[in-house]
Amino acid sequence: MDLVEAILAGERLPLARLLTQVENDTPAGRKGLDGLFPFTGKAHLVGVTGAPGTGKSSLVNQLANVFRHPQNGTLPLKVAVVAIDPSSPFTGGALLGDRLRMRDLCGDPGVFIRSMASRGALGGLARATADVVQVLDAAGFEVILIETVGAGQSEVDIARLAHTTIVVEAPGMGDDIQAIKAGILEIADILVVNKADRPGVENTERALRAMLELAGPEYGSASAFGRTGREHHGASGSGASADTAPELIEQGSGWVTPVLRTIGPQAHGIEEVVQAIFEHRDYLQKSGEWLDRERSRLKNELDILLQSTLVNKWNSQLPEGVYESTLARLCERQISPFQAVDRLMETRLQPCL
Amino acid sequence: MVERAIRVLIAKPGLDGHDRGAKIIARALRDAGMEVIYTGLRQTPEMIAEAALQEDVDVVGLSILSGAHMGLVPRVMELLNANGQTDMHVFIGGIIPESDVAALKKMGVQAVYGPGTITGVVVEDIRQAVTGTTVPFNK
Predict the structure, then answer these.
(1) What angle do CA B62, B26, B79 make, to 5 degrees?
(2) What value of ipTM does the predicted structure carry?
């Protein structure tokens, strides 16, 4: 299988081309993933999320730089970056501009940057991001930095994919009540206050620390929210789509979420963030949480794939016109959505062709 | 299987600092449903070729207003070929004297657009170029 061999050998064009196939979910992409999957599971997946304009891309640029040029004499790590920007809901087009902030990484063969459009997915990632990350993992990248779309409050899919999630905040983005809402802040393994040369940095930092302390002074982490809280995502999955209520994200309780200040352009505070990333990795590995997270990530992926495959199969076996006529009756308010589903489920399927 | 989106790299090689044209084209292509990777000002040919490779784009659009196109374009073409992206569609926009257009096309440039070009023409040309030919997936 020479595509797999080429990628394992570090060839870049086959890698780039396979990523396209995987992103488009083609048969060639699936075959490539099948071949590469046994070689995955080695990379440290680091998510970087936060509101638009907080400086995620610049931070990713700086983090990658430190991984490539460690000051403490350790070996440089191979770094891949997957940067996701939103697709237009009207045209499907996208302007992918994260790369613009990452020009320091140009010309380094130990770095591979790939931009992705979200293509309608709402959780802050694209549907194929997990698969793209797997290919890069198999290709030998030791750290994979995943930058989400500019996230609001509930784009928390990154916490299901990444081992370590960094949430980036900037001064002046909201008060302490924003900080205790459920959602994006509580998925942080590391909180970064970027643009720390701006006024208001103390307030932001204080609000974040207060949020962490409220969560449970004995842990000093946000984990207490996770046990009682529910996610924003609809608890009622519906219809013929593959999306149902996602499982709650498992959270450990032994990690103290640090709050770190950075100034992107001056690379100020970046070493400390990288240090925290390494410490979090050690914590995950020692506590056994690394394996738990891997398992729940793969389970999540299996469930999503299974659901979409079942729906597709069912769709292809449903006699023509049944779905449309059911939808029409629903629109006329003759039946409720639940009755519509019952009716569809009771429809006799045609045998597979 | 997802419908295939056309991926375009819009880059400004060289030293001129005017990127309004590049941004207008990037926006028009986005509005036409394409995925546009915008790399910003002052790119070297090496940076452009590297981005085109990593992003596996179908099209590279270069915006050049500095007059250095006869130096920059051959270098970009050479690097794209060296990376194995021999099937790349390269388009150029900017201030390009009529007398250079034939030479640029001979290097493999698909079209050259001057000031006043209607963006719809660029969109159609790109769509034609990409979907009219298939990008082979081998290796």
Answers:
(1) 30
(2) 0.89
